[in-house]
Design goal:
The protein has 459 residues and is α/β, with parallel strands linked by helices. Helices cover 37% and strands 10% of the residues. The strands form two sheets. A nine-stranded mixed sheet has the order 1-2-6-5-4-3-7-8-9, sandwiched between helices. The protein has a two-stranded antiparallel sheet with strand order 10-11. Strand 4, helix 9 and strand 5 form a beta-alpha-beta unit.
């Protein structure tokens, strides 16, 4: 794309009040952008409103600066050798499936290896063998199991030479890109495609900068927004139509009911594409969006083969299933994990399943509630002759010169249900700290609180 052609397209996209729909009407009526701007106001008003026609006759103030910046970006390359390219509506390399959308983008900015073209990703039905792409979307705050599923499924798609399309967001998107890149096998085919909602000179989120560099080397980064566009909330749902348009189907890995991933699924359905969903725990809010899609007719996915079969991809290219690792039958850990299953389980239910007593299962954590005092009070010694504190009671206070004894648990009196428990035994002198004898003597000198009935008064 030369400088003059680029100037015409940028002016059309920057003109206030001219969106994609109005721009397509102008292009259909007059031809290329530079021909639109040579028309008189009367001719323009036959296609758009009067205010839009007046705006078309005035070049936007920011046009020159953006033109210079974009043309320099177009001539540059990434440090790893990736090329920059701009595809305009009507370019022979513009993906055919995107042209069939209700709202195709006027311009697409690309970063990727020189041999890759966007047209490789989405072809018509008769070229189905070339259109091996699947969108993977999901929550930005997934569960650990959701992240693991996303990476594993994307890796399996990569091993089957299926490009994974996603949005470079945190969570499921990033895991899907990483899994596809880990299994990339064909250097002439994009392992993954990231459709972003900002200008391509920036990476959002910033923590995915390294991931974006990997994608630029082995895949494509796509945006419809001009350079300098910040991450605006309204642009993220808008870019989802391109994610759906560049793929044969959309797989929702994990999503809540209000997740933006459901927007991508809806757009894919409106475009006549298949929608898939991975079910999850009925207790997890991050699975309810997937369950809602399944109730509405989305294909339930348990294995990658479910997607390959539905989209009629070449199943021979899919990797063989990994052998399942099984615990030894005699392993107590294996029996316990099997009894727990894949859902949250209470201690009582686990006891019923395993036949073990509560003490056997909760034994390692029995002392979890016993906490040693912290803070200044734990470091300050308590004098035994403190007013209001008996010598017997002093033995229960922490000391900085000796190990802290476990705290006694006060139980109500069995006679009057009060907390006036009797104490038996007398405190004995504590040996010098730092010795085993000191610890043993302290435990022996600690008064034992008795649960014997009292007379209703404290001892």
């Amino acid at each position: 794309m030369d400088r003059d052609e680029l100037a015409g397209w940028l002016r059309l996209t920057l003109t206030p009040g001219i969106g994609n729909t109005a721009a397509r009407r102008l292009l259909a009526a007059f031809g290329l952008p530079w021909e639109v701007f040579t028309q008189p106001a009367a001719a323009l008003q036959q296609v758009v409103a009067e205010a839009q026609a007046r705006a078309l006759l005035q070049p936007p103030a920011e046009l020159d600066a953006l033109l210079e910046r974009t043309f320099e970006w177009l001539q540059a390359t990434e440090p790893q050798g990736a090329m920059h390219r701009i595809l305009a509506l009507g370019d022979p390399a513009y993906a055919a499936s995107l042209l069939e959308m209700a709202d195709p983008a006027l311009m697409l900015y690309l970063i990727g290896p020189a041999p890759l073209e966007l047209a490789q990703l989405a072809q018509l039905a008769q070229l189905a063998q070339l259109a091996r792409s699947i969108a993977m979307v999901g929550s930005r705050n997934p569960t650990p199991q959701g992240l693991s599923n996303a990476r594993a499924v994307a890796r399996a798609f990569g091993e089957a030479a299926i490009a994974v399309v996603s949005g470079l967001a945190l969570g499921i998107d990033g895991a899907a890109h990483e899994g596809a890149l880990d299994a990339a096998i064909d250097p002439l085919w994009p392992a993954t495609v990231a459709v972003v909602a900002t200008g391509l000179e920036r990476v959002y989120p910033a923590r995915h900068r390294g991931l974006a560099q990997r994608i630029a080397e082995r895949g494509l980064i796509v945006s419809e927004f001009p350079l300098g566009t910040p991450p605006l909330n309204q642009n993220f749902p808008k870019r989802n139509r391109i994610i759906a348009g560049l793929s044969r189907g959309t797989l929702v890995v994990e999503a809540a009911l209000q997740s933006g991933s459901l927007i991508t699924a809806r757009l894919a359905s409106e475009q006549g594409k298949e929608v898939f969903a991975i079910p999850g725990s009925i207790h997890s809010p991050q699975s309810r969006g997937c369950h809602a899609l399944i109730r509405q007719g989305a294909r339930l996915v348990e294995t990658v083969g479910d997607v390959l079969e539905e989209l009629r991809f070449d199943a021979a290219a899919a990797p063989p299933p990994a052998p399942q690792r099984q615990e030894e039958p005699a392993s107590p850990r294996a029996r316990l994990l099997q009894a727990m299953g894949c859902e949250p389980v209470s201690l009582d239910a686990l006891c019923a399943r395993t036949g073990h007593a509560v003490a056997a299962l909760a034994g390692p954590a029995a002392g979890a509630g016993t906490r040693r005092p912290r803070g200044p009070a734990a470091r300050r010694p308590v004098p035994a002759n403190r007013p209001g504190l008996s010598p017997a009671g002093a033995a229960f206070r922490p000391s900085t010169t000796a190990p802290t004894p476990r705290w006694a648990i006060l139980a109500p009196c069995s006679k009057c249900s009060c907390t006036c428990t009797k104490t038996t035994g007398a405190a004995t002198p504590v040996p010098s700290p730092g010795s085993w004898a000191a610890s043993s003597a302290r435990r022996a000198s600690t008064p034992r609180r008795s649960a014997t009935p009292c007379t209703g008064s404290t001892a």
